[in-house]
């Protein structure tokens, strides 16, 4: 089940590609994760469509700078909402169904949960909370449900102007031990491993960052 809000075109393309590989394997649902009813809607629609729920990937995120002196309530509710509040309440809504299948939850965290990004105060707080949530849920939902996280490093460049500078990008890539960017497929493989290839792993967060987090 693919959730979307404004990216309907992209969601339809993804669902079509998945269904071309295996018929009736994918569907989509529109939900604003900041709305209180969204978590229950997502889970109910998924179970109604497929008859079961085996795994949840909390991947949605807002990302933009909030330096000291320029933070406001709107940014707080948006960044905390998408990066922390939504994963918590979606996990809560999914817990009963996941327990039936001994399923799992994968949270997409960020290496900046541990190493705050300058000028991104609220975002760093939110991802730090998501890391703590990952470990807390692992305890709360054990032994029936495993909960883990993946922390990406430089995978895709954000749209903000600061990231468009070739020098800025080069500096970030140079801080990785592998001296290159990663790809979305690197993240997908880590998620797949935690879902299907790591039945004795829970409460862990894997950094998929080319070694950047140990050389910051």
How would you describe the overall organization of this protein?
The protein is of the alpha/beta class. It has one domain: Rossmann fold, CATH 3.40.50.720. It has helices at 8-21, 38-50, 73-101, 121-141, 166-174, 184-196, and strands at residues 2-4, 28-30, 55-58, 104-108, 146-152, 205-208. Strands 3-4-5-6 form a 4-stranded parallel beta sheet, with helices on both faces. A two-stranded parallel ribbon has the order 1-2. Helix 2 packs parallel to helix 3 (73-101) and helix 3 packs parallel to helix 4 (121-141).
SSE topology:
Elements: E1 2-4, H1 8-21, E2 28-30, H2 38-50, E3 55-58, H3 73-101, E4 104-108, H4 121-141, E5 146-152, H5 166-174, H6 184-196, E6 205-208
Parallel strand pairs: 1-2, 3-4, 4-5, 5-6
Descriptive key words:
216 residues, two-stranded parallel ribbon, alpha/beta, four-stranded parallel β-sheet, Rossmann fold
Structure summarized in a few sentences:
By secondary structure, the protein is an alpha/beta fold. The chain is built from six helices and six strands.
- Per DSSP E runs of 2 or more residues, the count of β-strands stands at 6
Average pLDDT, all residues? 95
Count the helices. How many?
6
Helix content bin = 40-55%
CATH architecture: 3-Layer(aba) Sandwich
**CATH fold name, please?**
Rossmann fold
Using the alpha-carbon principal axes, give the shape. globular
Q: How would a textbook summarize the main sheet? A: 4 strands, parallel
CATH superfamily: NAD(P)-binding Rossmann-like Domain
Content of β-strand: 5-15%
Strand order of the largest sheet: 3-4-5-6
Question: What integer value in Å does the Rg equal?
Answer: 18 Å
What is the CATH C level class, in words? Alpha Beta
In N-to-C order, the SSE pattern is: EHEHEHEHEHHE
Structural class: alpha/beta
Distance between the termini: 36 Å
Low-confidence stretches: none
Q: List the domain count as a whole number.
A: 1
């Amino acid at each position: 089940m693919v959730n979307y809000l404004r990216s309907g075109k992209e969601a339809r393309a993804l669902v079509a590609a998945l269904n071309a590989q295996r018929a009736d394997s994918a569907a989509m649902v529109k939900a604003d994760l900041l709305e209180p009813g969204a978590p229950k809607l997502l889970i109910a629609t998924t179970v109604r469509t497929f008859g079961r729920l085996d795994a949840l990937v909390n991947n949605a995120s807002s990302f933009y700078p909030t330096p000291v002196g320029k933070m406001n309530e709107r940014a707080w509710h948006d960044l905390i909402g998408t990066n922390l509040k939504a994963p918590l309440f979606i996990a809560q809504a999914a817990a009963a169904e996941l327990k039936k299948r001994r399923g799992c939850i994968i949270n997409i965290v960020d290496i900046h949960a541990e190493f705050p990004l300058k000028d991104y105060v609220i975002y760093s707080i939110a991802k730090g909370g998501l890391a703590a949530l990952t470990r807390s849920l692992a305890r709360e939902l054990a032994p029936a449900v495993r909960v883990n996280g993946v922390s990406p490093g430089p995978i895709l460049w954000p749209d903000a102007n600061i990231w468009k500078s070739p020098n800025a990008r080069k500096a970030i890539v140079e801080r990785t031990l592998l001296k290159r960017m990663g790809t979305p497929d690197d993240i997908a493989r880590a998620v797949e491993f935690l879902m299907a290839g790591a039945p004795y792993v829970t409460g862990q967060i894997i950094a998929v960052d080319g070694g950047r987090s140990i050389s910051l």
